[in-house]
TrEMBL record:
Keywords noted in UniProt: Signal
Coiled-coil residues: none
Entry-linked CDD domains: PL2_Passenger_AT
Listed Basic and acidic residues bias regions: 1-15
Protein name in UniProt: Autotransporter outer membrane beta-barrel domain-containing protein
Matching Pfam families: AC_1, Autotransporter, PATR
Superkingdom in the source lineage: Bacteria
Region described as Disordered: spans on this chain: 1-27
Positions of transmembrane segments: none
Domain Autotransporter: 938-1216
GO cellular component: outer membrane
């Protein structure tokens, strides 16, 4: 059957659909050639055709070369009668050129190779060919291969319209063209088969050319056409299920028509290419390989109903809005289009790139496991029409321009991430990103534009690029920010709530944008040119650095610690606003640049160390108030604090306000110390009502312009706590009323002279502590000055003596409260702590009014009761002096002032007398120590030992200014040892020995105290520890001399009636010589006159009882005793008994005792006194070795002050 001309065939095809084809490697494979047995007829027919000089045949193989004759002009092969499997090779540069016939006509399984530079050509005019299908240049039938090498040409050069250059007559054939296949007046290739598949591969150097359609077919056989080279003309397929494989770098100059059937178009290659615009009748589109293909027309107009991007990139630039077929992107594929060019439904398992250079809205749906990428400078709005939105799960990459969404599901499935790679995500409504989306930022950065909406990101954001926030709305990031992201808040508010421990980047805040975060969520570097809000509801430490021109604001109830790690601290200059909770800083630089202010708007500034605020910072307090918590540290604010709010001082440390502060909300000192003006800034002040809490301190050298309620301490000038640098004496002024339920500490620095000035004073059982120099009239003292108002209520004055040694008051006294400018003070307004205060030898009491006119509302310290006020001739007189409530009972005023000595004066005055008496009684006399001289009969070494105990009750009175009297007991014990004794023939005996003694005196003392005679002044005890040596000489007839030298250590302890305790130490060195001469008077009785002389040197150390230093000095006393002793002797009960009675007169010779108080006041007591003593006792020698003795005595004074002693003595002696 003859084929129609190629011009007719161009319009006979109709579109159809076919399933997708396999890859190119599969397309070009063909079945193994069938093994065919050559018939004898076929062989004979082939041989004559090949029997020429330059085309030689060997078996079924023909080879043509360039040898003569050339060109070869005879047809090779006989078409269908040619043996199967024939092979023809036209060698390089060889030529087969024939006329009105086929040049090569073979049968099945043929293999034809036209080598480089070779030419196979015919010039048919009306030939029917061996197959009856025209005079085609090359014919073959089934399963054959034609290879045209680069530079080779197959040319149909005749005028016959159906004589094509290549005409496969059957199926399963493969045409590989690397050279040129051309029809001058016909199609280049024609397929005669009505079924099966033939394949054409037009490689990169290949050219297939025809004046119209370069290819045609007679039936519905399939054609697989792979174009890597050039097709010049139209590429038209017939009715089969055809495949066109286009490769980058190839071209088709005419139109492409898939014809009938189900046709497949594949786009292949690694380069970049654009599909011709005139292409129709392909039902399936497949993009393969890594290259990029662009389709500029609508894929629907091509007949496509199913498109698949398997690999590489497919770019759609036409209008595909009406395309309803399938569009699928495989994992290795990329589909690139704008919103206007993308089909309405895409199954994205690879990458969909929106190349959006102009604004556009995509209302279609993207599904699958792949990603969506936004490129181009325009705005892409993803507005999926389906309620569920897009469902692609591979994530969204924002590379350029803007991607606008109004719902999270526009960004695909909730597991799909969002990657910022240079582009912008814009909110079209308030929405929250699904928390399962991974969000990352590349080095190209990105932007989130909230416009005026709200959005929350609950997951982490990671990466290393720049991420900007624009739009007036609020973006909240609850997840962590990880990596070196450089964020910039250009507009609106960015809220960071996530963990910033891995946030190594920075944030820049532009004006008027807001960054809200906590210490835990803020990155280490912030440039604040807008507002940084710390929303700190839990405690946190921010060690990063904040710079810029913006403001830092603290919100939230927690404590924010600003601890910048940079050496220079924070440098932001817009100031710090404390709205809630606490900001803790350890250096001024943590609050930004030194020109940045601090505004208290309800929050607290806490010190983490001692430092001063830069004096260039403006400090203000809004109506919401503010707190400064010093903790245990100290800080000075030198500048003025302004505003309408109230200031609260918290923390145990010290805050110094040295400015003229005008904030008007008042001040609360809740804890620690608030200093208004240090010693160098006495003009400092605060305004408004001020309250001081229990345990807190207010004070300084400045002024409070308002009322003060004190439940803590008001510390004036140098009375401030030790944490404040010490200054000179000064004053503190309250231009208002002071209500004092706490302590006013006027006294400080060991000096007197501070002044507290108040307009009015109300005591609520408070205390004022003052330093006073307790001396004479007008001695220096701290002072409360009530200026024009009143002093009411009840207040205790506590006086500390600073250097006063006491002196008699002869006029008004020492002023401690001054009523100035007509001020009035209530009679019970002030009392003195303890009722009295001691200094030197005196007791001072508090009195309202002085002795001079105009002092009736002043208060003074006095130590005398003034004489009764005299009235002058004109009827005027001094003020009445009224002792303050709580003062001890004072003597009535008389004609002369009454000096008030303190109780300790009389108590201490008795110490020397008791020490002296105790030492004397410890030494005593020979008979009381040793019994009798008749007992001393031993000789030799260590001849005898002895011991005694003694005790007495004594009343010792002394004269002088305070008339002390001791009423108590004395007692002691001694043990002695005769070390050596000898005798002479003349009857003289000597005993040498020593003794140890311990004595104690304890009793009550009375005397003149606070103007009251014989008042109980306290208790005195003295302990004595003695060591003595003695020599006793006994002459013939029993006369004796006894010499003793002793040293005694004495310790005195006192407790006054005011419960004042003191002690001192003394030493006594005493020497005694005694002699007695027994005279027999008959009847076994003797009379023994005795004489004794005792010398004592007593030295007592000074003592200090806290009120003054008391000096005792030393003194010498001589005691003389004259006595007479009557004794009798008899034997009874195996023992020798000697009862006796003695009468003694004693007299002390001395200059008297004297105590000095702070080397000023001197109190003396006389010592010269004569006393009498009666002794009665018995001495019993009960064996050769042992004897005992005992006595009682009674004594009293014969002149001077009252003395009474009742005592006893018992001893034992043992001769060895």
């Amino acid at each position: 059957m003859r084929k129609e001309t190629h011009l007719q065939r161009a319009t006979d095809h109709h579109p159809g659909s076919r399933p997708p084809r396999n890859r190119l490697a599969d397309q070009i494979s063909r079945p193994h050639p069938k093994a065919t047995t050559l018939s004898v007829l076929g062989y004979i027919a082939l041989v004559p055709a090949l029997a020429h000089a330059n085309c030689t045949t060997s078996g079924t193989t023909t080879t043509c070369d360039t040898s003569s004759p050339s060109p070869w002009t005879t047809q090779i092969g006989t078409g269908p009668t040619t043996a199967s499997g024939a092979q023809v090779t036209v060698g390089s540069n060889a030529q087969v050129v024939v006329g009105n016939s086929s040049a090569i006509a073979l049968s099945d399984n043929a293999n034809i190779v036209v080598q480089s530079g070779a030419l196979v050509q015919n010039a048919a005019t009306n030939a029917s060919g061996t197959y009856g299908t025209g005079g085609n240049t090359i014919d073959f039938r089934n399963n054959s291969t034609l290879t045209v090498q680069q530079g080779a040409t197959v040319l149909s050069n005749g005028t016959e319209g159906d004589a094509e250059a290549v005409n496969p007559e059957g199926t399963g054939n493969l045409i590989v063209n690397n050279g040129t296949i051309r029809g001058i007046n016909s199609a280049a290739i024609w397929f005669q088969n009505t079924s099966g598949t033939n394949t054409v591969i037009n490689n990169a150097t290949g050219v297939i050319q025809a004046p119209g359609n370069v290819m045609g077919a007679s039936g519905n056989g399939a054609v697989v056409f792979s174009n890597l080279g050039k097709v010049i003309g139209n590429l038209v397929f017939a009715g089969g299920n055809d495949t066109l494989n286009m490769f980058t770098g190839s071209s088709v100059s005419g139109s492409i028509n898939g014809g009938g059937g189900s046709n497949l178009l594949t786009l292949n290659g690694t380069g970049t290419a654009t599909l011709p615009t005139t292409i129709t009748n392909f039902q399936t589109l497949q993009k393969k390989d890594s290259g990029t293909w662009t389709i500029s027309n609508s894929i629907g107009s091509m007949g496509i109903t199913s498109a698949e991007v398997q690999q590489g990139t497919l770019v759609l630039t036409g209008n595909n809005s009406s395309y309803t077929g399938a569009m699928r992107v495989d994992q290795a594929g990329t589909l690139r289009a704008s919103a206007q060019s993308l089909p309405s439904a895409v199954t994205d398992n690879g990458l969909v790139q929106f190349q959006q250079d102009t604004n556009g809205t995509y209302a279609g749906l993207v599904s699958g496991s792949g990603a969506v990428e936004k490129d181009g400078t325009g705005t892409l709005t993803l507005a999926p029409s389906a309620a569920g939105g897009n469902s692609y799960t591979g994530g969204t990459v924002l590379k350029q321009g803007v991607l606008s969404v109004s719902a999270d599901n526009a960004l695909g499935g909730t597991t799909g991430g969002v990657t910022f790679d240079g582009g912008t995500l814009q909110l079209g409504a308030s929405l929250d990103l699904a928390s399962t989306r991974a969000i990352s930022v590349t080095s190209n950065g990105g932007t989130i534009d909230t416009q005026g909406f709200q959005s929350t990101i609950n997951q982490a954001i990671s990466g290393s690029g720049a991420l900007d926030k624009t739009g007036s709305g609020t973006l909240t990031v609850n997840g962590a920010v990880v990596g070196a992201i450089a964020a910039e808040v250009q507009q609106g508010t960015l809220v960071l709530n996530g963990d910033a421990s891995q946030f190594t980047g920075s944030v820049t805040v532009d004006q008027p944008a807001v960054l809200q975060a906590s210490a835990q969520s803020l990155p280490p570097t912030v440039t604040d040119n807008g507002l940084v809000q710390f929303e700190q509801n839990a405690d946190g430490v921010y060690t990063g650095t904040i710079g810029g021109t913006g403001v830092v604001e603290k919100d939230g109830t927690g404590t924010l610690t600003l601890a910048p790690s940079a050496t220079g601290g924070n440098t932001y200059t817009g100031g710090t606003v404390l709205k809630a909770g606490t900001v803790s800083v350890s250096a001024d630089s943590a609050l930004g640049g030194a020109t940045g202010g601090v505004t208290f708007d309800g929050g607290t500034l806490q010190l983490g160390s001692s430092f001063d605020l830069a004096n260039t910072r403006a400090v203000s307090i809004t109506s919401n108030g503010g707190t400064i918590d010093t903790q245990g540290f100290q800080s000075t604010i030198a500048q003025n604090i302004t505003g309408a709010g109230a200031l609260t001082k918290a923390g145990s440390g010290t805050l110094v306000l040295d400015g003229v502060n005008t904030y008007s909300g008042g001040t609360t000192v809740a804890a620690g110390t608030l200093v208004v003006g240090d010693a160098s800034n006495t003009g400092a002040s605060v305004a408004g009502a001020t309250s001081v809490a229990t345990g807190a301190v207010l004070g300084g050298y400045g002024t409070v312009n308002g009322d003060v309620t004190n439940n803590g301490t008001i510390a004036v000038a140098n009375a401030l706590p030790s944490s404040v640098p010490a200054g000179a004496r000064g004053s503190f002024t309250i231009n208002g009323q002071l209500t004092n339920a706490g302590l006013v500490q006027l006294g400080g620095g060991g000096q007197a002279g501070n002044t507290l000035n108040v307009n009015g004073y109300v005591g609520q059982n408070g205390t004022i502590a003052l330093n006073s120099v307790l001396g004479a009239d007008n001695s220096a003292s701290d002072k409360l000055v009530v200026n024009g108002g009143t002093a009411t209520g009840s207040t205790t004055l506590k006086i500390t003596n600073v250097g006063g040694h006491g002196a008699p008051i002869v006029s008004n006294g020492i002023q401690v409260v001054e009523a100035a400018n007509g001020a009035k003070t209530d009679a019970g307004a002030f009392t003195l702590s303890g009722g009295m205060v001691k200094a030197g030898a005196y007791e001072y009491y508090l009195a309202k009014g002085g002795v001079t006119a105009g002092t009736s509302d002043d208060w003074y310290l006095r130590n005398t009761v003034p004489a009764a006020a005299s009235v002058s001739a004109n009827g005027s007189g001094g003020s009445a002096v009224v002792a303050a409530e709580g003062t001890s009972a004072l003597p009535a005023a008389g004609s002369a002032p009454v000096t008030l000595y303190r109780p300790e004066v009389a108590l201490y005055a008795q110490i020397p007398g008791v020490m002296r008496q105790l030492d004397w009684m410890q030494l005593d006399e020979f008979h009381l120590r040793q019994g009798d001289q008749m007992l001393l009969g031993e000789t030799g070494r260590l001849p005898a030992s002895w011991g005694r105990v003694w005790g007495a009750h004594s009343v010792l009175s002394e004269g002088g200014g305070v008339s002390p009297q001791f009423d108590g007991t004395m007692g002691g014990a001694q043990i002695g040892q005769d070390v050596y004794a000898d005798g002479t023939e003349g009857g003289h005996r000597n005993h040498y020995g020593f003794y140890l003694g311990m004595g104690r005196a304890t009793g009550d003392v009375s005397g003149l105290a606070v103007g009251v005679p014989n008042a109980d002044v306290g208790h005195l005890s003295v302990n004595a520890y003695s060591l003595a040596g003695y020599w006793t000489h006994i002459g013939p007839g029993g006369w004796y001399t006894d010499t003793v030298v002793s040293g005694t250590s004495l310790v005195a302890a006192t407790t006054s009636s005011d419960n004042l305790h003191a002690s001192t130490h003394g030493t006594a060195v005493t020497a005694s010589i005694e002699s007695g001469l027994p005279i027999a008077i008959g009847h076994g009785l003797t009379m023994e006159p005795e004489v004794q002389l005792v010398y004592q040197h007593l030295s007592i150390n000074d003592l200090n009882d806290g009120a003054s230093n008391v000096g005792f000095g030393s003194g010498n006393t001589v005691l003389g005793r004259f006595g007479i002793r009557f004794a009798g002797t008899w034997n009874a009960m195996g023992a020798a008994w000697q009862p006796y009675v003695g009468f003694n007169v004693l007299h002390a010779f001395a200059n008297g005792d004297r105590q000095t108080y702070d080397s000023v006041a001197s109190i003396g007591t006389p010592v010269n006194q004569t006393t009498a003593r009666i002794d009665a006792g018995v001495v019993t020698k009960f064996s050769k070795h042992g004897s005992v003795y005992a006595a009682v005595n009674w004594g009293t004074n014969l002149d001077g002050e009252h003395v009474r002693t009742i005592g006893g003595n018992a001893g034992v002696r043992w001769s060895w």
